[in-house]
Amino acid sequence: MSLKIGNLRVAREGKEIVKGVSLEIRPGEVHALMGPNGSGKSTLAHALMGHPGYEVLSGSIHLDGRDITAAPVHERAKAGLFLSMQHTPEIPGVSLGAFLRSAWNAVKPERLGPLEFKEKLEAKMSELRMDPAFARRSLNEGFSGGEKKRAEILQLSVLEPKYAVLDETDSGLDVDALKLVADGVNRLRGPERGFLLITHSRLLEYVAPDCVHVIKEGRIVAEGGAELSARIEKEGFDAV
Fold this sequence. Notes:
Helix content is 34%, strand content 30%. The protein has a domain at 3-90 and 161-239: Rossmann fold (3-Layer(aba) Sandwich). The two termini are 31 Å apart. By secondary structure, the chain is α/β, with parallel strands linked by helices. A 6-stranded mixed sheet has the order 6-9-10-3-11-12, with helices on both faces. A 4-stranded antiparallel sheet has the order 2-1-4-5.
């Protein structure tokens, strides 16, 4: 049981960006992927989720033994893979609650009606200390950076995927919003779920990773524990 990436090479608009990345995330583990801007972090995240703008040149992605390298996005989501994007779109006229119910019914075997889902959603929002009125707002429309990340943590909490990839969830957040996101991740981490946190390091002040990977120019150049992220925070990426 794992999300296993094997020697993956990925291109964007004809240019190879990820150049042979291998790593394995097991349920219960929190992995952090760090690296300078342009090193291939977000490209890897989009390729894992099957974004059509990213071409897998070679290598493989296996989720709990199933080869999903060429699977469409919806099949990856049904299999238990979740991506929190760095830049989330605004969808006027579609409430966050309605979006989440549609997402639930698309990926879960048990379909829920409006009232059943409302009870589930309000319970999750209570756990995350969120105002129920937040779910009635149009998805990401007029949301602050912190509110967008709160919405993503709520999505993660509701959908309960097996493996969650969070692409720079800490980017641009003030300290209060950062702590809220970290609290959400820490509440959801457990033996049934694996995380890949793509970050520059701020989130790791509040979420202790089991393993840290450093990527440069599309390749993993260093791996270690939490002490590696602390070293990079102090000395920069030139230290590895």
